[in-house]
Design goal:
The protein is an all-alpha fold and 85 residues long. It contains 5 helices and no strands. This is YlbE-like protein.
Length: 85
C-alpha cells in the first residue's frame, strides 16, 4: 500500500484514523511502512464488526414500527368496514 492509498483510506474512514492516533506505535508503524496500514485496517474493521451499531438498529426499528402502524391502520379500517356491513 502506497502513501497515497493510505491517505485516501484515512480520509474515507476518519474513525480508523482516530483509532490509529490512540496508540503511538501504530502511527509509527504506518509511517515507517505504509503497507502495515492495510493490516491494521483489517484488524480495526474486524474489531468494529463485533460492536452493536445502535444507530442502525434504531433506524431499522423505527422503520419497522412505522410499517407495522400502517398495517395496523389498514386492519382497523377493514374491521370498521366489516362492522358497518
Amino acid at each position: 500500500m502506497k502513501r497515497k492509498e493510505v491517505k485516501r483510506l484515512l480520509k474515507e474512514h476518519p474513525e480508523f484514523e482516530s483509532w490509529l492516533m490512540e496508540d503511538e506505535t501504530r502511527v509509527q508503524s504506518v509511517r515507517s511502512n505504509p503497507g502495515t496500514a492495510e493490516e491494521l485496517f483489517k484488524r480495526w474493521n474486524d474489531r468494529k464488526k463485533g460492536r452493536l451499531d445502535l444507530d442502525t438498529i434504531s433506524q431499522k426499528t423505527k422503520r419497522a414500527s412505522e410499517m407495522l402502524n400502517g398495517v395496523q391502520n389498514i386492519m382497523d379500517m377493514m374491521a370498521d368496514y366489516t362492522k358497518k356491513m
